[in-house]
Design brief:
Layout: H1 7-26, E1 30-31, E2 36-37, H2 43-58, H3 71-85, H4 92-111, H5 115-119, E3 126-128, E4 134-139, E5 152-157, H6 166-179, E6 191-193, E7 199-203, H7 206-220, H8 228-241, H9 248-255, H10 260-267, H11 269-284, H12 289-299
Antiparallel strand pairs: 1-2, 3-4, 4-5, 6-7
């Protein structure tokens, strides 16, 4: 049993085990007396999860969330890469890596997708929109996509600010790949580069994406502990506070979350946005104190009402 994971992570692991065993024909319940069914759904496992949740709650452990990565840092990285691309002594390998990195970071931020899912995106999953003003991406496999007809489809549109535009970023990447004679008709969208400078049709790993992101932030002196997951969190927060998403369903549909709890967790939808609105309304209502007290006494104070038995 995991001993150093957050209770929510333990719950997710248990849920994954339940799903795996269900696919093996074990169902979703467990018979304690006969010892048959899905052991990951047993009473003992549920009791263990409850103990973990209570233990961490008593220890006042708060879930650690990824530090949001905002557009200001994406713009800083993009401007830095633009400057580097203008260097006359830049090798072909370095130029390819720079154009790849800027496209990947821009795509992940505006998609709000997992870095691991972006890394395994196939070229045949990326389509131009009819007006050539954006791309449509259709993921069929990823961390939470394991068949059963599930897909994650989202659209990227051109931004007024070309420096951070994900559409222009991908176009620059494709142009550089074409210049180097790399076949981009199929295979992985973002390719690895060997030490010798050869571009191979292997996907980038999460660790390689993390190291690239971290190196840019450190070079620019703006690293604050961000990870690739920070771009996903930053997208959710940006959508929420910019009103790009009018409700939780908009967040879920764009990013691909299956539950409202995940969308609200990453976007801080309730803890920041709703709470801020509620606090503002509460502060503004302070001048109506006497009016609200009278309303309570007249409509909601049942203690002062006469019982039918006292008539």
């Amino acid at each position: 049993c995991p001993k150093r994971l957050a209770a929510a992570s333990v719950r997710n692991i248990i849920q994954h085990l339940v799903d795996i065993l269900e696919l093996e024909g074990r169902g979703r319940t467990y018979d304690e007396y006969c010892g048959v069914g899905n052991p990951a759904a047993s009473v003992q496992i549920k009791a263990y999860l409850k103990c973990v949740q209570e233990e961490q709650a008593k220890a006042h452990i708060l879930p650690k969330q990824a530090k949001p990565f905002f557009l200001t840092k994406l713009e800083s990285i993009s401007k830095y890469i633009c400057r580097e691309l203008r260097r006359s002594d830049l090798k072909s390998k370095e130029r390819f890596v720079l154009t790849r990195d800027q496209a990947l970071f821009k795509l992940q931020f505006f998609a709000g997708d997992r870095a691991s899912d972006i890394a395994i995106t196939l070229l045949q999953e990326v389509k131009y929109l009819r007006k050539k003003d954006g791309f449509a991406l259709n993921h069929t496999f990823g961390k939470t996509l394991r068949g059963n007809g599930k897909t994650n489809t989202f659209v990227l549109k051109c931004c007024p600010n070309e420096i951070i535009c994900p559409v222009r970023g991908l176009e620059i990447y494709f142009e550089e790949a074409k210049r180097l004679g790399i076949d981009m008709s199929s295979g992985y969208l973002f390719r690895m580069v060997t030490e010798s400078g050869r571009v191979i049709n292997d996907p980038m790993s999460y660790s390689s994406i993390y190291e690239r992101l971290k190196s840019y932030l450190i070079t620019l002196g703006i690293y604050e502990g961000e990870t690739p997951h920070s771009l996903r969190a930053g997208c959710a927060v940006h959508m929420c506070f910019s009103n790009a998403a009018h409700n939780v369903n908009d967040l879920m549909n764009h990013v691909g979350w299956a539950t409202e709890s995940s969308a609200k967790y990453y976007s801080r939808y309730e803890t920041l946005l709703d709470a801020s609105h509620t606090a503002t309304r509460l502060a503004q209502s302070s001048e109506r104190g006497k009016e609200i007290e009278n309303m309570f006494k007249e409509n909601a104070n049942f203690d002062d009402l006469t019982s039918i038995g006292d008539l």
